[in-house]
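User: Show me a protein chain along with its predicted structure.
Assistant: Here is one chain, sequence first, then structure tokens.
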Amino acid sequence: MNVDAYLDRIGLHARPPATLAGLTAIHRAHSLAIPYENLDVQFGRLVTIERPAIYEKIVAKKRGGWCYEMNGIMGWALGELGFNVTRATGSVMREASGDFSNGNHLVLRVELPEGLYLADVGFGDGPRNPIRVVPGAFHADGFDFSLRRVDDRWWRLNNDPRGGAPSFDFNLDAADESLLAEKCDFLQTAPSSPFVQNLVVQRHVPHGLEILRGRTLRTIRADGISDRVIADADDLVKTLKTVFALDVPEVAVLWPKIVARHEEVMAQKAANA
């Protein structure tokens, strides 16, 4: 594993210093360079939290990943570059699901002279910059977020209303690695898992977000939101390559499953209308 190869993967060609400016440069570059995606879950391939496997996938094969992989590789790189970084427990939609959600997200705590910072490139549509862990609302890159204390241990990041999951909770303690591994396994195997049910690919772009869920490609910009339905398997392969920088032609084999899920979701929406 070579930290310079990781930096090259995210478009940085010199080692940033272990400062807030350096952390921001890495966080932002990673967010813009590497897409969030669950293709391997859709293929039925094992997704692990082990760093060598994540490095091979994201750096060597130029793929993306989900939170365990995205924050896993960035956390490793930050440590190699001299940052005081700790893997911490996240909990997406804990406000609705309670402690059952704990460990379904990995975040990073970074200690700097300026204070404690949350680093998270694995939420898919979250902030592109690290966040100082202090309560308050903030506007970043055209999106609105807020951070607040839930109790003595947990914090909550509220996502922009145009995003996916409305919130996630996190604490600043060192993560229980066995819990992370357990949740990583659950999310890629349980029939009820949204990652098993749906193809999800998301990418930050300079002026907004591109989000693919199943057949629907959503483009979010400051002046509005537009949706496009992917036409066929060839269109899916092309969209992944041109919009998300993912060259995965074998995704075409997933097309029948994606179409069936799209029809199921549309029928549910029609029934609830």
